[in-house]
Amino acid sequence: MPADPLGRFLTALDPEHRAAVGARPREEQERLAAAWERELESDDELDTLDELSPRAAEAEAARRVLERETD
Prior knowledge:
With 71 residues, the chain is mainly α. The protein has five helices and no strands. It starts with a helix and ends with a helix.
């Protein structure tokens, strides 16, 4: 598992979104990864999910970040 935030963010995405985000400029990828980290840190629901399934919490946070990007 990647240790850097961008690598972890990309790993948390489903394959279709991973490819789409991977095609974006590096700066934008890093901005999304930072938003993903903030989402993980700030949402209490994700804290609970993280205790049960860290990967599920990371995937949910990634989904939320991308959803906000398309709104």
